[in-house]
Amino acid sequence: MKLFKQILLTISLCFLFFIITDASVCASVKINRTNKTMYIDNTYILKVTGTKQYILWKSSDKKIASVTKKGKVTAKRAGTCTITATVGSGMDNKKLSCVINVKSKLSCNDTIIKCYKDEYESVRIETKNLSKYENLVIEEENNKIAYAEWDYNSDYFDMIIIPKKLGITRIKVSRVNNIETFSGSENDFITFLIICYPDRSGWLGIPNLKYYNLYLTSNSSLVYEHIGISGTSLNGFVDVTVFELNPDTDIKEDDGTYISNGLQYKIINDEDFYFSTKGLEDIIFCNLLENP
Question: Which of 86, 136, 163, 270 would disulfide-bridge 196, Cβ 3.0–4.6 Å?
Answer without folding.
Answer: 163
